[in-house]
Amino acid sequence: MVDTLTLVLAAVVGFMLAGLGAKSRGLLPDWIRLSGPIVTLHTERGKAFLDWLARPKRFWRAWGNLGAGIALVVMAGSFVLVLLGGIQALNNPQPTQLTQPRNVLAIPGVNDFLPLSAAPEIVAALLVGLVVHEGGHGLLSRVEDIEVDSMGLALFTFIPVGAFVEPDDEQRRQSSRGAQTRMFAAGVTNNFAVAIVAFALLFGPVAGSIAVVSGAPIAGALPGGAAAQGGVDRGDVITGVDGIEVTNSSEFDDLLDETDRRTVSVALESGETATVDRSLTVVGAAPTAPFDINTTITEVNGTAVYTEPGLNAALRDREVATLESSTGETVTTPIGAYTNVSDPSDPGPSPLADVSGLGGEAFIVTAIDGERVLDSATLGAILDETTAGQSVTVAGYHDGEQRTFDVELADHPREDTGFIGVTIQPGTTGMSVDDFGIEGYPAEFFLTAIGGGSGDGLNGIQRAAFTISLPFAAVTLPSIDQPFPGFVGIYENFYVVGDGPLAFLGTGPILLFGTLLFWVAWINVILGQFNCVPAFPLDGGHILRTSTQAVVSRFPLSDKHAATRAVTITIGLAMLASLLATIFAPQLLG
């Protein structure tokens, strides 16, 4: 099947060919200019409005000076972040979803973190960001008496990717360094100002007017799994199990954990009822786990099992068991917590490796001080009650051989507990299983993150920083498997209007407004930060030049222009090399 990126590339090539044909035949008006897939729309309209808006020059110069100070601080941070990102990519070139080249493209549906379901809101937010950014340049140009030749939008085919203001180059060069700095900083200043306003509205009246729907939201159903076969699909909300009401995902999970009945009846928020025949599907597996992902476990020692409670009951008192899959494959394996013993050469202590010699190898822990360890949760709970310096007896299996070791626990590097020196794989014997086949959606978590719900103690700056990370939540937050695209698509089913000050708008408008504010804030922060990278042709590169000129002018150098050029070129090349390394090194070297 053709992937999305291939279709997009084919469409771009088709657009370029059509554009070349129209250009060669003189069909394009003067205000449309075409260069490959880039289209620029030029206009002189709006210049009179800029002149009117620029009249309080003292105010706008003060605004520009404030913005210049902010831009210099963000520039310094951007320089460090980009440089460290490049170094990290070269030292540890591990490909991740974050470093995929496709995710450099700000195209919803191609970029993994810009969902197609939120495309209208993302495009609208991008337009807002581009207009206020370039509008800032145009406004400060007129404040500093620099003529604006034209202004307009730049599009990648039909998608807005930039806006531009074309100040008169000669007048700009003749203006003072301070005037140029204020003009170049105005764009990012406006982006950050718009982001602050959007965050304030989102965190306050908007999030306060949204509530999570009662029930367990379903973000996805495992293809061929029990829920999918029973008619439960992504976007559904489960409101009851066997006649017992559930108001959230935790209650739903607890009800399933409390019963080993194979067949359960679930009520959906739509009013329908689904009958689900539970079956044990492996949804996560360590490299040497007994079964691979998507395998269905059907028997333990010849006894049929269908549910997680039934599986746990069958394995609890057995350190070794024979498991059978739906395909008839049988595996006899130790039952416990699958761990990878830390290598003694790695930074930090490795007490188990020191006494066992198993550094860098797998070890299935079946007991600690005689207490049965069934899975990763049991092992984690036992270790949470230990202290550094405590001696424990660790029993388990390595390559099928039973081994027992006396271990003196070290200081845990992150928690106030003892440390055994292992990384623990989720589930039993390295297998995570699911008997219902759904993926829940953390609707309450996301609403709380943007200031709704019961609150989490974050201040405004912390909440803004955390909110910026939400589109990447599935790869940056260990306990979250879903990103936050806003209140769109199937995710709109998981929220309703609450009791806040904007409740009168109704569910649809308030969720649309919340999504738009989220992406306006997110895109304006990204635009502002990216444009502060000190490299040409970004605003940060121009501000770097004027700032370097100001510093160099204080030194008795014979060729101050050459010194300025050397500094700006060196820093610019370092930024370019770091950006390229961050994007491509994981793919080429990983």
TrEMBL record:
Cellular location(s): Endomembrane system
Lipid bilayer topology: Multi-pass membrane protein
Gene Ontology cellular-component annotations: cytoplasm; endomembrane system; membrane
Residue intervals of the PDZ domain: 219-266
SUPFAM superfamilies hit by this protein: PDZ domain-like
Main subcellular location of this protein, as a coarse class: membrane
CDD domains: S2P-M50_PDZ_Arch (cd06159)
InterPro entries membership: MBTPS2 (IPR001193), PDZ_6 (IPR041489), PDZ_sf (IPR036034), Peptidase_M50 (IPR008915)
GO biological process, one term: membrane protein intracellular domain proteolysis
Ranges for domain Peptidase M50: 123-571
Pfam family name, one: Peptidase_M50
Membrane-spanning residues: 62-84, 183-204, 502-527, 566-589
An example Gene Ontology molecular-function term: metalloendopeptidase activity
Keywords, comma-separated and alphabetical: Hydrolase, Membrane, Metalloprotease, Protease, Transmembrane, Transmembrane helix
Protein name: Metalloprotease
Upper taxonomic lineage: Archaea, Methanobacteriati, Methanobacteriota, Stenosarchaea group, Halobacteria
